[in-house]
Every structure is written in structure tokens, then in C-alpha cells.
Amino acid sequence: MQLCSRCGGDRVVYHRVYSNERLCRACFIETFERRVVRTIGRYNMLRRDDRIAVAVSGGKDSLALLHVLWKIEKRFPEARLFAVTVDEGIEDYREEAVRYAVEYANKLGVDVYVVSFRQLYGFDLQEVMETSEYRGLGLQACSVCGVLRRKAINYAAKQLGATVIATAHTLDDIVQTYFMNILRGDLKRVEIGLRREEDGAIPRVTPFRLTPEREVVFYAYLMKIPFQASVCPNASQAMRDPIRKFLMEYDEKYPGSLYAALKSFEKILPAQDKEFTQRRCRVCGEPSSKEICRGCELLTFIQRGAVCGGMS
Ligand code: SF4
């Protein structure tokens, strides 16, 4: 019989392959939550009196993050937690996700702020994509969605007076992004989710930076968190999809590879980040590697009527 590596109990529910630990339910939950607290401390992600805007999509990762931060926040009465949800307008998908996000935030007693592309930009993602395809403009759904969602979260966080934005990017997501940046030849866009205080920008943090995605899923399952299980209809077009598959297979074959990759990136990247952080977008004032950030560039392109026929 296999016993829990920590408490010796006989109800093992999880095998943590990279550390060869077998864990019972209670020990899995305890080590999972402790690692999030350690990650926050190690990278100075949060302060005792922060107003934290948690980006919640309604999927497993973000709801698990809301749950664990809600538990941690109880120990810090000066801190305040909000959920921020963006409705990009993805047909037959996002409505359901928004419902999960709002219902779970309400259940925890966390104020939730929903903002939509239509309300902010005057168009839905769906509409942009349909018109782009019709006109042969070659816009990728995920590129438009990712960039404009980031802008929308920043907007909502500012409305709430947030001092920090927490996103549910896991160890897997962060390593994938580092690889994608390298493949795009974009080494300047480097440190992801590490708190940086800069004028005009709310810092972003990623408390799941050291947590593999499969453990986040298992935590959500153990905590019985209801989440949207269906996948976005655009997900297969995402540039990160082949990288995600490759890294997942590699890490399965050679457990611990994701941690090793993160460690390597952390050694080589911070020094190269300075130039990027010193620049500001001329339009919105957010940090940008170019004179005008990708978000403002896209918005100008779309709103000028090139895609949506002159929408404001
Ligand atoms: Fe947006 Fe792409 Fe994610 Fe769908 S898969 S929510 S389009 S970034």
C-alpha cells in the first residue's frame, strides 16, 4: 500500500512525479497553498494593504487563484480582493464563463467587476474576426483577444483603485510565453508576472508561477470549484498551442523540465528588461517596447474602420 509521503496516511490521491511525493488530500491542499504563499513572498508579489484585482475568466486556473487568494487574504485584513472579468464577445463560449466567474465570486463574497469589449471598444471579438476574415486582413483571434483583454483588465483595475493585478498564469503558461518570445525574436518582452512599480501602470503578479497547471486543475477539483470546462473555439489557432503540447509532452517524459526552464530564464532575462520598462506608449502611457503599444495600434487599426466599418 502506498502511504502519504508527509503524514503517512493511507489515502494517497496525488503523485507529484518531479519530487516523487505521494500525497493525501489534506497534504496536497496544504502543500499547494503553502507554495502559493511562498511564491508570493519569494518574488515580493503582494503587500499587506494591497487592493488586489484578480483577473477571473471563469476557467479552472483563475477560479482556483481567486479561491486561494481569498483564503490567504483572510489573514490580512488590510488587503482587499476584487474579481475582474472581461467579456470579449466570443459566441457560445464567453457568456457561460462570465456566469461561472460571477457566481463563484459572489459565493466567496468577493466584489466582481465585469467589463466587455463592446462597452470599452465598441465592438466584439467575434465581429472583428468575421470582418477580418471577409476582408482578408489576417488578424489572429488570440492576438487581438490577448492584447485587448490585457488593456481591458488594466482599465477595470484602475476603476477599482487596484494597486496590483493578479493573474492565474501557471508555471506552464509562463515557460510557454518565454519560449514564444524567443521564437518571435522578442527577447525584450521578458519578465512575466513579477511586480514592477512604474508610473501609470498597475503591476501584475502571477502567484501560480511555481505551480504546474495539472496541480491547479487538481486543486480546483478537490475544492469542488465549478468552472467552465469547454475550450474557447479559437484555442486551436493560438500560436502557443504547439509549444504548449511540446512542453507538456517533454515535461511528462522528463519531469521537472518546466522548473529547470524557468530557472534558466530567470538567470538570463532580468538584465535585458531595462530598456523595455523605461519606455511608455505615446497614446495610453502604459509600458511598451515601441512608441505606440500593440493594444493602441490594434485599436486604431480596428476603430479607423479597417475592420469594423467605422465603429467608434
Ligand atoms: Fe481569447 Fe484565444 Fe484565449 Fe479564446 S483562446 S479566450 S480567443 S486568447
Return the structural class.
alpha/beta
- Indicate the proportion of strand residues: 5-15%
Order of helices and strands: EEHEHEHEHHHEHEHHHHH
Q: Please, what is the average pLDDT?
A: 88
Q: Using the 3D structure, state the CATH architecture of the largest domain.
A: 3-Layer(aba) Sandwich
What spatial form do the alpha-carbon principal axes imply? Answer: globular
Poorly predicted regions are none
Supply Rg. 20 Å
**Ligands (ions, cofactors included):** iron/sulfur cluster
* Count of strand segments: 7
Total tally of structural domains: 2
User: How many helix segments?
Assistant: 12
CATH class of the largest domain: Alpha Beta
The residue fraction in helices comes out at 40-55%
Instruction: Report the sheet with the most strands, covering strand number, pairing sense and barrel closure.
Output: 5 strands, parallel
End-to-end span in angstroms?
65 Å
Topology-level CATH name of the largest domain = Rossmann fold
CATH superfamily of the largest domain: HUPs
- Which strand order do you get reading across the main beta sheet? 5-4-3-6-7
Keywords: Metal-binding, Transferase, Zinc
GO biological process, one term: tRNA wobble position uridine thiolation
InterPro entries: Ncs6/Tuc1/Ctu1 (IPR000541), Rossmann-like_a/b/a_fold (IPR014729), TilS/TtcA_N (IPR011063), tRNA_thiolation_TtcA_Ctu1 (IPR035107)
Domain tRNA(Ile)-lysidine/2-thiocytidine synthase N-terminal: 52-244
